[in-house]
Amino acid sequence: MGGKVDSSINKGNAPYIFKLSGQNYHSMGSLLPTPGSRPKFCQLYIYDTENEISNRSTSIGGPTSASTSTSISYDLQIIEFLKVMLDSNNVLVKSYRMVAALIVGDISDSVEKRDIVVQTSSGLLQRISELHPSYLALQYPLLFPYGDDGYRVDILHRGITSSSNSKRPTCTMREFFAYRIQDRDQSFSLLLNAKRLFQQFLVDGYTMIESERLFFIRKQQKILRCESYEKLRNHQALGSTDISNVGQRVILPSSFTGGARYMMQNYLDAMSLCKWFGYPDFFITFTCNPKWPEVQRFLKDTPLHPEDRPDILCRLFKIKLDAFIKDLRKNKIFGTVQAGMYVYIHTPTISLIANFYPICIILCALVYTIEFQKRGLPHSHICLFLHADCKLPTVEYIDPYISAEIPNINEDPELYSLVREFMIHGPCGAENFNCPCMVDRKCSKNFPKQFCNHTSVDSNGFPLYRRRNDGNVVGKSGVQLDNRNVVPYNKYLLKRYQAHINVEWCNQGSSIKYLFKYINKGPDRATFAMVQNNNDSDNNDAVDEIKEYYDCRYISACEASWRIFKYDVHYRYPAVIRLPFHLPGQQVIYEADDDIEDVLDRPSVASSMFTSWMKCNEINVEARKLTYVEFPTKFVWKPKLLIWKPREVGYSIGRIHPVSPKLGEAYFLRILLNKVKGPKSFEEIRTVNGEICSSFKDACYNLGLLDDDKEYIDAIKEASLSRSGYYLRFLFATMLLSNSLSKPESVWENTWEYLSDGILYTQQQRLKSPALSLNEDQIKNLTLFEIEQILLRNNTSLKNYRRMPYPDDDSVSSSNNRLITEELDYDIPNLKNEFDRLFVSLTDEQRNIFLDIMTTVKDNKGGVFFIYGYGGTGKTFLWKTISAAIRSEGEIVLNVASSGIASLLLTGGRTAHSRFIIPINLNEDSYCRINPDSDLANLVRKTSLIIWDEAPMVH
Ligand SMILES: [Zn+2]
After folding, report:
1. Is 5:22 a contact under the CB 8 Å cutoff?
2. Could you tell me if residue 874 is left (phi over 0), alpha (psi between -120 and 50 degrees) or otherwise beta?
3. Do 442 and 434 contact (CB within 8 A), yes or no?
4. Residue ranges of the Helitron helicase-like domain (predicted)?
5. Which of 426, 746, 822, 915 pairs with 281 at a CA distance of 20 to 30 A?
């Protein structure tokens, strides 16, 4: 196996965990050891076979390390026994020795004539296919001592005789692994008893399944390209024959569980539940308990520990979680029926609340995600949405549901021991600096908390639970801990499920985004982001989402078995139906990219879901009472028939894929789809009061769906009292940039007098004519020109706002593309002099670099140079010389730097972020949004050279 095994996790005395990060390769090493090193792995079968046994024992630990540590010494008899056993039973070992013996004895002769590629002692690894039937047996000779076959692509499902008459006749790799890791009554499974090797087998198996899927996705990239046809056409019109760099991205579709798009879609689904049901009320974390009595019972007569059977832990956790969700959905949350029993009559106040507030909770929605802890155990984050009638009105009602106190040992000994076992945080802090919660010598979870006599809510909206100083303590690791160290829990749930179940109240809007981000943050993701830019070279690949996925992946044995069993990673109740839509006559469908097989088989499905909604409106009266987004509550989509049918059972809600306001009409169509009931055609969608509007935007405006920008007008007026005209223009440009204005032209008409503040004065100064007067049109024109400057600096233009007036070309400098004129606006004779002066001062080394780069630029060869040198070695000097050389020829050089300070050092320097629109907040979906036909793109095309100072600082 060639992945990165994360061994840092196995420090300390906790059970062994096998964890892998990044991509997994399967390789075969060379047949002979590199000179000087000892033989290992398959080399042992060939090298010095007389001494094979001692070679074997030295290769894994060996005498060198045995001298320092006494714990490693291997039983030579066992090794001898295993060798004999494998030699006599394993066909693969037999044939391997034979082939190897042939080759080794014959190595100087014509090896290349054989049909086997042999690496003798190069030390390089060679990749072998995981799909080879003998692969597993070769990788795990001890698990498959008879060398039996592993997965092959053509295993038929049971009962299927030929591969033609069924949709999916053959067994998938996932099914194969799921089959192999079952216990069977009549047979002993060596695999399931292999402990650490079994963990490795699970991870290995899962990475094989995943890489097979990812390989398939990589092959389908052409189909997944989601750039609109219109853009492609534009690009072709520009004379470009190679359209492959439009929208150049390797896409990992949202149907791929665990990928970034998948996570985003689930986040949006969860947010749409919020739209329907309001904020969630409870946030519950349910963690797998490896000491559950069921696990103990199962392992009772075996030498195994819970961590040796991650598959069993996962299955049991899934069973318990399902039961838990069933409890919740049957409205028995927190023991509704017996809830009274669990409201402890400690004090009169609580019993009063219990009487006043009958405990009946009706659940309307829930969402959960499965995650795997650092040590691999699964846990689930659950958000509960209560019916509006049962929401807890104030914090006083929390106490019966959530407790953060140690119960009295005499009153409820069972609960006491459960709290002690599962719900006590720590000891951490001064008592135990090695506690995993400790970050910078402080508890990252802020334990111990403060004592507090009543439950309340802090200024950030987070609840502070009651923790009375009542003298109840528990001992843990020799430390006495009190109510300040209790993790909030629910008594009923804790007793019923006997695991760490943290219950938190969350009725505050401020915490909701944090919460959903948290539960949807995706699998263990490294926090760095690498962006590969596509600016300086065309053959450089743009963002590869599959690669990014691999780079951030960690897989433990538990997660591997969870995924091999195909258990849900996300769950929502009710279901959220993702509704696609598109503009009339357009091919681009605004929806989450569909399941890849579906896209391949039926490209028209997504569009027909939208159009057949309108068809359904024609025939069904009931349908006309609903908007598109409400439609799934009463109707069911039948994907096979491509029609909507009235819903008979169940309930689900709809969600329309969000689109950026920059997309214009699509954005406004989406707003209308949330409002308009029962339209039968696109015309009807934009019909307001019997009148067909010319655009979806106008329809939105006529319906009063868009704010009437009055607040923005007021904001500009208000700011004009204290701020400069430049600031006001900047403010207006920012409003345009953020697309928050529904009718920018009306804001402009209402505020231009404020926005033009100072324009006249500047013009008087510039033309050195203090008596200059300008008419209204001239002032407007100059003001618009100034605003356009601000927009251009942010890579957009007034042209992008359809109804905004555009400054007169005469007053705007000669060319339409301000960016290019700006870059060409240098005093060439001056620059030539400067260049001559700079060039003679170059050192030999600098001169060589200069000549190399200039030759490449002049021959238009294209290429990337990376110049590395310590501070003060004259890099900036070199940049200036090169810039002067190229600019004095009338060509364009873009000087950018990763930091603002460095960019100031360069003539015409800009930060790379502003120049190439690199998003500020980088995530796995980030890329530079440069439209192929924008001014910026034209600038980049005309550019001869980009000098990027401090390039490695971009991260
Ligand atoms: Zn702590």
Report:
1. no
2. left
3. no
4. 176-344
5. 426
Lowest mean pLDDT among 23-32, 631-640, 862-871: 23-32
3-state secondary structure of 350: helix
pLDDT of res. 556: 83
**CA–CA distance, 368 with 284 (Å, rounded to integer):** 9
What's the Cα-to-Cα distance from 472 to each of 411, 457, 466, rounded to whole Å? Answer: 12, 24, 14
Ligand 1 geometric centre to CA of 479 (Å): 14
Identify the weakest region by mean pLDDT among 5-14, 781-790, 818-827.
5-14
Instruction: Say if residue 356's pLDDT is above 50.
Output: no
Averaged over 626-634, what is the pLDDT? 86
- Give me the amino acid identity at 165: N
Contact assessment for residue 821 and residue 814, using Cβ atoms and an 8 Å cutoff: yes
Please say whether the beta carbons of 560 and 203 come within 8 A: yes
Chain-centroid distance, C-alpha 484 = 36
Cβ distance 455 to 467 under 8 Å?
A: no
Q: Given pLDDT bands bounded at 50, 70 and 90, which one contains residue 419?
A: very high
With contact defined as beta carbons under 8 Å apart, do 593 and 599 qualify?
Answer: yes
Both ends of the chain: CA-CA distance in Å? 30
Q: Residue 9 carries which DSSP code?
A: G
* Nearby residues of 413 by Cβ (< 8 Å), 6 or more positions away: none
Q: Strands, E, within 470-535: which ranges?
A: 474-476, 479-481, 501-505
- b/e per residue, 530-548, with b = 16+ CB within 10 A? ebebbbbeeeeeebbbbbb
CA-atom Rg of the chain in angstroms: 34
pTM assigned to the model: 0.61
How far apart are the CA of 497 and the centre of ligand 1, in A?
24
Length of the chain: 955
Q: What b/e sequence results for 565-580 when a residue is b if at least 16 CB atoms lie within 10 Å of its CB, and e otherwise? A: eebebbbbbbebbbbb
- Cα of 444 vs centre of ligand 1, distance in Å, is 6
Question: Exposed/middle/buried for 798, CB within 10 Å: 0-12, 13-18, 19+?
Answer: buried
- For 92, 128, 790, 938, the CA distances from 149, given in Å and listed in that order, are 10, 16, 67, 58
Highest mean pLDDT among 256-265, 313-322, 572-581: 313-322
User: Backbone dihedral region of 385: left (phi > 0), alpha (psi from -120 to 50 degrees) or beta?
Assistant: beta
Nearest CA to 451 among 406, 397, 492?
A: 406
Determine the distance separating the centroid of ligand 1 and the alpha carbon of 486, expressed in angstroms: 11
User: Considering only CA atoms, which of 431, 428, 460 is closest in space to residue 444?
Assistant: 428
How close is the Cα of 522 to the center of ligand 1, in Å?
Answer: 24
Q: Are 774 and 760 spatial neighbours (Cβ–Cβ below 8 Å)?
A: yes
Q: What is the pLDDT of residues 529-545, one digit of tens each?
A: 333 333 333 333 355 77
- Distance between CA atoms of residues 925 and 260, nearest Å: 7
Rounded distance from Cα 418 to ligand 1 centre (Å) = 19
Ion ligand 1 neighbours (CB, 5 A) are 428, 437, 443, 447
**Mean pLDDT, residues 444-463:** 80
Q: Are 396 and 306 in contact (CB under 8 A)?
A: no
906-914 contact pairs (CB < 8 A, 24+): 906/876, 906/879, 906/880, 906/947, 906/949, 907/880, 907/883, 908/822, 908/823, 908/826, 908/883, 909/949, 912/948, 912/951, 912/954, 914/793, 914/794
Q: How far is the CA of 708 from the centre of ligand 1 (A)?
A: 51
DSSP conformation class of 649? S
Does 468 have pLDDT greater than 80?
Answer: yes
Amino acid at 18: F
Give the span between the Cα atoms of 696 and 689, in whole angstroms. Answer: 14
DSSP 759: H
Average pLDDT over residues 914-921: 72
Q: Is 878 in contact with 842 (CB distance < 8 Å)?
A: yes
**3-state SS string for 103-136:** HHHCCCCCHHHCCCCCCCCCCCCEECCCCCCCHH
